[in-house]
Write a structure and sequence with these properties.
The active site is at residues 209, 243. Keywords: NAD, Oxidoreductase. InterPro entries: Ald_DH/histidinol_DH, Ald_DH_C, Ald_DH_CS_CYS, Ald_DH_CS_GLU, Ald_DH_N, Aldehyde_DH_dom, Aldehyde_DH_NAD(P). The structure is a single chain. The chain folds into two domains: 3-210 and 406-425, Aldehyde Dehydrogenase, Chain A, domain 1, CATH 3.40.605; 215-392, Aldehyde Dehydrogenase, Chain A, domain 2 (3-Layer(aba) Sandwich). The protein contains 15 helices and 18 strands. The chain has helices spanning 3-15, 22-38, 40-51, 55-81, 116-129, 143-154, 169-176, 189-201, 224-236, 256-269, 285-294, 345-353, 368-377, 412-418, 443-446, and strands at 84-86, 95-103, 106-110, 133-137, 162-164, 182-186, 206-209, 215-218, 248-252, 300-302, 306-307, 312-313, 316-318, 336-342, 360-364, 382-385, 406-407, 420-428. A seven-stranded mixed β-sheet has the order 10-13-14-9-8-15-16, covered by helices on one side. Strands 5-4-3-6-7-17 form a six-stranded mixed β-sheet, sandwiched between helices. β3, α5 and β4 form a beta-alpha-beta unit. The protein is globular and about 85 Å long. The chain starts with a helix and ends with a helix. The protein binds nicotinamide-adenine-dinucleotide (NAD). The site of nicotinamide-adenine-dinucleotide has 28 residues, from α7 and α8.
């Protein structure tokens, strides 16, 4: 069947009102949970084949994440989908006002490759929980994970409700010509613009989950041991191929040397090596070559080795970096961490204010004034004080970018809202209405 036909079938199926039933939504969320658990080993194998991601990392950053999402919606669907009563103003008495969350219809989810299960299925789960039909187009770059998702979902779900469409740029371009009720895109800012333009043709609303250069600032008032340990973990997880990984470090000059040493200590302690099954590989040759070019020999503080055959790049610290260096011109998206020194915290915030708004920002300090300035002065999607990445694991926090790093958000109730329309209903009593609003407007009425 052609994809256009499947989309039309989804639109027809949506009109049958089946997906609006809470029982129906829960039944399929449970089914998705069951097939993920049943095929867990297949999912681990596929991602290991794609970029050597370990079972432990895949469980903690992908599978458990998705299962938590499903459980969240199973537990909260009744309250999330309930109409909410609100107060009625004087001009509308006697009346009742309420807000009714309703599904949008047929959703297109376009996924990225770096957390292929989480970034594809988490929006799908929210879309289904909100009562929509959905087409998922995972990233073709992680080919094995795309195939396994297509297999387990298309064998178990009716295509008129949920369908995984395999393909790359051509297939996505074809999809983008069709009219959806919402498009949820995760990927680069460059492709985000293509998606936004295509969506505008149909006035389709979008969520764009994009990237950018996310800074981590470490001041002299930070707990340096904790900061180094958490930064090393968050940066080199998935070999740096994480949209919210700290892209570069801004370290106060007085602790610069000591902090670099502490970073080195933890990289060594974590035992990342080209033989390790715990350390993820670079996704493909193209990205490998792009990253290797960013490692300038004279700037290496630690690491810098790589193995092309294994697509392995050692965790690498670059020192004596300036804003003009190549590594500071684009999102790194790999295991290379440039470190810039600063002397004045407020000036560094001013510098960041001149740059594009990043998806994440991190601050390590115990100083309340610095925490306050970081939170109120800078604009970024979301972030942490004294940690990295972990903000997105709290489903009570919305996850999304701002400006160049994206528009819209999801996770928890925010995911449900992203795929719902809030419909307003005012119900009026048929008696007790003042006649003043109706013409003719006599002098008496005008002076009322
Ligand atoms: P990408 O933009 O290259 O690809 C994303 C999706 O778009 C894929 O499904 C791909 O098939 C499709 N695509 C690619 N080129 C296209 C084109 N010309 N026309 C139509 N569709 C096209 O991104 P990627 O390499 O998969 O992911 C890396 C980027 O995504 C990084 O910038 C990263 O920061 C960002 N990212 C953001 C988040 C987030 O949650 N905000 C999460 C992960 C990755």
């Amino acid at each position: 069947m052609e994809i256009k036909e499947i989309v039309n079938h989804q639109k027809d199926f949506f009109k049958t009102q089946q997906t609006k039933k809470i029982k129906f939504r829960k039944m399929y969320l449970e089914k998705l949970r069951d097939i993920i658990i049943k095929h867990e080993e297949l999912l681990y194998e596929a991602i290991y084949k794609d970029f050597g991601k370990s079972k432990f990392d895949t469980f903690t950053t992908e599978i458990s994440f998705i299962l938590n999402d499903i459980n969240y919606y199973l537990n909260n669907l009744n309250s999330l989908s309930k109409p909410k009563k609100v107060r009625t103003n004087l001009a509308n008495q006697i009346g009742k006002s309420s807000i009714h969350p309703e599904p949008l219809g047929c959703i297109l989810v376009i996924g990225a490759w770096n957390y292929p299960y989480q970034l594809s299925l988490s929006p799908v789960i929210a879309a289904l929980a909100a009562g929509n039909c959905c087409i998922l187009k995972p990233s073709e770059i992680a080919e094995n994970t795309m195939k396994v998702m297509a297999k387990i979902i298309n064998e178990n779900f009716p295509p008129e409700y949920l369908y995984v469409y395999e393909g790359g740029i051509d297939e996505t371009t074809e999809l983008l010509k069709l009219k959806f009720d919402k498009i949820f895109f995760t990927g680069s800012t460059k492709v985000g613009k293509i998606v936004y333009q295509a969506a505008a043709e149909h006035l389709t609303p979008v969520v764009l989950e994009l990237g950018g250069k996310s800074p981590a600032i470490v001041t002299k008032d930070a707990d340096l041991e904790v900061a180094a340990k958490r930064i090393v973990w968050g940066k080199f997880l998935n070999a740096g191929q994480t949209c919210v990984a700290p892209d570069y470090l801004l370290v106060e000059e007085s602790i610069h040397e000591q902090f670099l040493e502490t970073l080195r200590k933890y990289i060594t302690e974590f035992k990342y090596s080209s033989d390790s099954v715990q350390y993820t590989r670079i996704i493909n040759e193209r990205n490998f070559q792009r990253l290797v070019k960013l490692i300038k020999k004279e700037k290496i503080y630690f690491g810098g080795n790589y193995d092309e055959k294994k697509l392995f790049i050692e965790p690498t610290l670059l020192n004596n970096i300036s804003w003009e260096d190549d590594v500071m011109q684009e999102e790194i998206f790999g295991p290379i961490l440039p470190v810039i020194s600063f002397t004045n915290f407020n000036l560094v915030l001013n510098t960041l204010l001149e740059l594009e708004k990043p998806l994440a920002a991190y601050l390590f300090t115990q100083n309340p004034e610095e925490k306050e300035a970081f939170t109120t002065k800078l604009s970024f999607g979301g972030g942490c004080i004294n940690d990295v990445i972990m903000h997105l694991s709290n489903d009570r926090l919305p996850f999304g970018g701002v400006g160049n790093s994206g528009t819209g958000s999801y996770h928890g109730k925010f995911g449900f809202e992203a795929f719902s329309h809030q419909k307003s209903i005012l119900e009026k009593s048929t008696w007790g209405e003042p006649n003043v609003k109706y013409p003719p407007y006599s002098e008496k009425k005008l002076n009322w």
